[in-house]
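Protocol step 4 of 6.
Sequence for ABC3 transporter permease C-terminal domain-containing protein (Catellatospora chokoriensis) entered exactly as in the expression construct, tag removed. Do not edit the line below.
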Amino acid sequence: MITMIWSQLRRRLWRSSALFAAILLATTGFTVLTGTVNTSRLQVTGEVDANFRGAYDILVRPKGARTAVENERGTVAPNQLSGTNGGITTAQYRAIQAVQGVEVAAPIATLGSTLVSNTAQVDITDLVDRSKPRQLIRLEPTMLADRGLSSALRVSHYIYVTQRPLIGLDTARSTGPTAYFTDGTALPPREYCDTGSLEVQEDGTKKRLCGASLSNWPDDFGGFRTPPFDVYGLLPDGRFSSGGSDPQYATDRLVVNIWWMTTVGLAAVDPVMEARLLGLDQAVVSGRYLRQDETADLAKKVRLPVLTAARPQVDETLRVTLGTVDDDLVRTIPGTRSDVLHARLGKAEAAPSGTRTFETRPPQPDPALETPLVIFMFVLRSGLPRYDTTADGGLRPVVSAAAPGSWIIHGPLLGGGGTPSLIFDTAFRDVELANRESMLSAEPVGVFDPAKLQGYSELSRVPLETYRSPEAEGADPRSRELLGDRPLAPSSNPAGYLVSAPQLITTLAAVPGLLGAKAAENAISAVRVRVADVQTLDELTRERIRRIAEEISTTTGLDVDITVGSSLQRQTVDLAAGTLGRPELRLSEWWSRKGVAVAIMEAIDRKSVLLFGLILVVCVLFLANATTAAVRDRRRELAVLACVGWPRYRLAAMVTGEVAVVGLAAGLVSAGLAVPLSRVVDVPAGTSQALLAVPLALLLAVVAAVVPAVQAARAHPGTALAPLVSPVRRARRTRTGHTVLSAALRNTRRRPGRTLLAAVAVALGVGAFTTLLTLTWVFHGNVTGTLLGDAVSLRVRAVDTVAVAATLVLAVLALADVLYLNVRERSAELATLQAAGWGDGALTRLIAYEGVLIGAAGALAGAGVGLFFVDRFAAAVPATAVAATAAAALAGVALSGLAAVLPALSVRRLRLSTLLAQE
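Step 5 output, structure tokens:
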């Protein structure tokens, strides 16, 4: 048996060499390709392990806190915490802390937003014309937001400057209806002129400057109807005094203070836990950090301790336009009652004199005060926006049914011209009052810089970021142009779509004194949990995090989300136009997609297994094709052996042994080539992996020889000596009129087994190609669109290309081998056609056409396999996948034609005399 095997290998050296080359190529290709798959997985694992962890691993929220969009898409809007107002009790928080494996449990209570004041100092000294006895300077303040697209014009400020003597009001005596002035003048009350200075006229008479009472109408709580009217005297020495005040208080510069109210977020934390989670204590840039036991009691005048942000979190600008009013109107001001003056000023023209701009500043302690204070009024709670889904899958925030600014509480809560003008913009959130105290006071103990918080990977930012305001970029050229290529940022409107991150941070211990003991009991909005000993995202770690999350959910009954491995993902949002001028915008926001790292690991695991399987199938079928062809080439020889008494098992063993010897030799050579070849293609393959090529090649050879060996054992001596080509069903004569294409078509029907084998080879190549493309598309589709997913995809895309290219090469070689064997077995027939007058060109086209026809059949089958995998793994067959599959099928047909080139050219070497002699 062994002698026969060696004899056959030497005698049929060309077939042995072809089989050796096939096994060598398949084994080496498999070793290198599996190396690329392992490399892909190592790269992905390394990338994920370096970026999977955010500030916390588990997020606990009140029951029912998940929105409809979150449940549907698994994504969380930026700063969703701004609309989560309490819902977790202190007892539930303690239960979370007690769960084994919890390293840090940091609670945060979103208390809402509150009003704080901003002041702009406008120096108008240079606008004063010292040659005029009287003049009126108008300051028109406008609040700008949304990158200047939204503007709210507040009432104008008027500064009356006179060189005539001024007599101020004697406030000590003016306690009743009669107004007393510092020179002893007493005047009875007068409608629309109950206050104001007296101005001495050129003729010595004294007239009231009633414009000072414009801003004191009792029914103007918002400061939108009556303009402030300030009176200044220009003294002979060039200094300025206010309203007839003592000259000793006069100033060299005329500076007007314009103040406005804005809203800032207020949140409460556990200082110790927040320091452990984010390093908030290390982000303090001035002052000191919060103490855990610091409380507040507003009833007892114990101020609220707060940390204030070092930089503003809103896009809000005050623009002041300066102008001087016509002199003719100015001359009529003395003695004119305020309502008449108000009407005249509303129609007056003012010569422009420039503009000044002032940015909104975060509340900061005033170093000039002995006890720094921040005075604010009340606490507002904003709800979450609701969304409709657009036709293209985007989101459209629903405009609130309530009128903009309808939540304003009239009275002392919003008086003296303090109403933020931007609250009258379009509302996307419901707003309610959380605290009815008319005046709250806070003591800033320190200033923190959010940029100095402990850094985590930008690729894995977790949902509900506490210290970073959301931004939205333009999603189309029009929106980007409107925004000036800058992102849309929050304004101070608590009912607006974007709401800023908290700029005031206090302690949980201070919440009862702020909201009351009952409201403070369940004031916690979320608990951020970090699990102990999390270094990598392996299966054991994922299971441990899942177990802790499950225990928290079971113990507390709260909504629990595993946020480890979250990453940012683009979300398109169509924002309706605002009432203050902002047009409709198409925006792109970074939403947090939960579990991206876990999805990547699961996807790459499945992708690796499928790649291994496909490459293995390619190799086995490639070898099976070559071995089957070798057995078919030896049918007469095997029949002779069967006639002389060889049993079936011995025939099968001989065929298997021949293939096994060739496989063992190819495996040894493959082991020697694997390491240097892997270095050439930059794929790490160690010695142990290379040595696996030996048993792998032997195994592949034996498996591939099973079917051919069975065929050899089953061969009957009589049928084995029959012609190789099966007879046609009806005899036909080859006529001159028949075309080469029709002859090729008949030939494919005459040999159904050989045609099927070749078609399977093509289907294998096209199917593997489309399947790998599908897997790559599904894998990238599952993880791309997020920052972490995009980074991983860039790492694995080249590896996928190598795998696809190598699979195609194996398929093309398999088809070429089938066609070459077909030419050899039909060489006598082809030589006869040549002798009958067929030229070399006709014979070449005959073989090429057969290859294309077989390739077309295989390509269709392979395309079907590709579509099956799309439907299986993507749960749908999108138009892009159909187009890609069709392109793959056309490529398969083209490659089939290319694979037929060499077998077709070999026809030209056929010689009739030699072939007849062999017969």
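Step 6, annotate. The longest helix spans residues 13-51.
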